[in-house]
Amino acid sequence: MSNRPAYWLLLVLLSIGQSRPLSACDGIVVGKNASADGSVLLGHNEENALDRVLEFHKIPGQQHASGSVLRLAGGGEIPEVPETHGFLWSENSGLSFSDGYLNECGVAVASIQCLTREDGYDALVARGEIRDGGIGYMLRRIVASRAKSASDAVQWMGRLVERFGYIDSGRTYAVADPNEAWVVEVVRGRRWVAQRVPDDQVVVLPARHVIGEINLDDTENFRASPDLVSYAVKRGWFDPGKGKPFNFREVYQTAERTAPDRRHFRGQEIVTGKTGTWPPAAPLPFAVTPAKKLSVADIAAFLRDKDGLAPMFNRSTQEAAVFQLRGDVPREIGCIYWRTTGRPDLSVLTPWYVGITATPDDYGRHAEPAALLSLSHHFQPSPGTFTPDPRRAWWKFKNLVSVVDEDYAARAPAVRAAWSAMEEGIRTGQGDVEAKAIEIWRQDPQAALAYLTRYCSDLAAEACRQADELRGELSRP
Q: How far apart are CA 296 and CA 302, in angstroms?
């Protein structure tokens, strides 16, 4: 493929960047009975050490001719399906593992890098563990375009990892829909494991694997590659003769990553409302019961937390996202991708309903869907993609951050107050907006989607206007 040199160079740069202590994504998953409104909630901070530009797209569903194939970034192929889902897509141009998706079935997917003890890429290719270039970037894209539910997403991910082999050291994926959520953890090569998030509990996701002891007979709550345990025995990582239960994170993770993690510890403190002692005497549990039922606002506060033992964001965060997934109304209205443009401490969370038909021109490069979805579009960005442009949303917030960072302590409070007021107004009006959308939907679904598209675009435009205004005020002598 013509884009492979650029693809592998970017993969190396990503691995370097994401191994730095100040560049590690984190997340949180809330079961439907642990949320304030009965939704499944997925929160995620996207962090990369490299200076980035994120763009936001709405991709409509696509029709594919019989016999057509989907090309993977490494060169492999799979058959196309006759019709794929539309989705919202937060694109981190040039990177292999940083995009976020929410599809029109209400399936959301995000990920966090986790280092494992598995051998390097070349060694696994030589052993046949990685085939046809492996899979990495396209894994979540395929989930977004094909999965009908979180459970279906797990099945797709498992089949693809077993068929091609995963190319990165390891990763935790969170997949969620309005009914349930799963944590899927993959290792370079063909091993993976998944655990269902309990409906009444919360899972905090640091840059570490969090799945511990598993029960593969309990197919309602666990799934895995068929040789997950036997492969570990073969490699000498697990000895069943010692009588100790198989523990995925202890067996497959690098030794230093099995130690307690401060982000994980701090996150569980926030969720449970209980102060612990660092370091904890026992391994942290997979899931915890929250002190109260959590809302979108609570998840946003979690992603912005910068106090206590471990910050939940840092200055390499490029997007905070909260997926609010509800099934008691049409998916087009009930499933929302709340997101910031840039750092969550100095940006505002605005909603994007999955049923919208377009995103504003200043939020992303616009082209025909086939062009946007091409590997060359992503891995060989057009000239000017990373050039500062004050007309575009990304740079409006980037410029605001630059001004605030000149005197953060003095300037950040005014910016946070402005965004808090805007977010409160959006939350207060959410019920009325959705009631009107549902009323229109009953008569004319397309008109309802046009209404939501205008609403989201208007909020985004207002956020950009306020970002410019705040920057101007703070720049005055």
A: 10
Angle between helices 408-443 and 296-304 (to 10 degrees): 150
User: Angle formed by the axes of helices 296-304 and 262-272, to 10°?
Assistant: 150
288-344 pLDDT, tens digit per residue, is 999 999 999 999 999 998 654 333 446 789 999 999 999 999 999 999 999 999 999
Could you tell me the two tokens for 375?
A: 């590997």
Pairing label, strands 87-92, 54-59: antiparallel
Query: Which amino acid makes up residue 214?
Result: I
pTM higher than the cut 0.90 = yes
